[in-house]
What we know:
two-stranded antiparallel ribbon; 8-stranded parallel beta barrel
Amino acid sequence: MGPTLQFPSGFAWGSAGSxxxxxxxxxxxxxxxxxxxxxxxxxxxxxxACDSYHRFAEDWHxxxxxxxxxxxxxxxxxxxxxSPGEFSSAELDHYREVIGTAKxxxxxxxxxxxxxxxxxxxxxxxxWTSSESAxxxxxxxxxxxxxxxxxxxxxxxxxxxxxxAVVGHLMGxxxxxxxxxxxxxxxxxxxxxxxxxxxxxxxxxGARAGLALSIMDFAPADDTPEAWRSRDYLHHWWAGAWxxxxxxxxxxxxxxxxxxxxxxxxxDDFVGIQYYTCLVVGKxxxxxARAKVADPRPRHDVPEAARSxxxxxxxxxxxxxxxxxxxxxxxxxxxxxxxxxxxxxxATEDDAERIDFVARHLRQVHAAIGRGADVRGxxxxxxxxxxxxxxxxxxxxxxxxxDRATMERTPKxxxxxYGAVARANGLD
Length: 428
């Protein structure tokens, strides 16, 4: 007998990582500089990371050997374009080897063009606040897509653009450390322009393009109109505005005049969902901002266990597996696009807890498919214990442990468990 919960034929079962978090010595990136800046919120420096720049073949053998059939990885803009308009053939050849090795081992690669990091020269020119940022990114996307065209399938143009916009330009926790609401709106528009242009480049190279969105399950702290207003506002900034933009090409309901982005509507062949937790929003979270958004999502209950944070990860994030189903339903309704879960995972020292976490979320993914959502794959974050941005190396998300003194890889029981799920294309 097969597994009780069978997934669709051809379902992608993979795990994910990013260049800066695994490769090491990404010295030309703004994050390398951020980690060393006076007063930085970064708890550690990335340093040699997991040395995957040199050890990628070992990583791919472990992923493929477990039974997975896909892998999500990023290529590093700061390596490929170390100076404005000057592209490194050697680095493009390197990434051809990285992607080609994965394919040779039976792993279908999903390649991400931008995973948080920028070249230092781009950041010093204003980064995503610059009116030229979209075209500068498009130039890189065209060159990379052309050079790698025969190896590409599904391509994520930009990873978690709402994090780039909000965490970097409103919260000030990621580079460039800004805290201005109107600038955050402008960055949002520039990122969507960059995505539209990059998607065009990806499609011209014969591949499929999509955006990987960070989406939490947002809930109000109570049932008052004020709490719902705050919840609706934060949800719109983090997810709703992005989904509306993909559907209509219009950036609407933020802090300055609504804008149409040429080429954005219809630019996507799929959409990526990155789900980890829920966020309970109290009254006044919008802090007097425009907050005119009326959220069309069906309203649902969030269990008390999630509200009270009875069970949290090393990141301090609440367990809320039902939320991934809510998010999939929302994205399916809003966009009508095929969906990949491009990230979902847990930072924990307890590997049995990791297995429990993934199983609970996969059951909700399966249920969403049963409700009609076109979900085509799931990527666990992450295949390695790696550099978790400002949090450093303390959070352990990986299916594979890494001894950073020796760089020895040690598979965890969760790797074999997840590989067995992938081989069976289902779980009980």
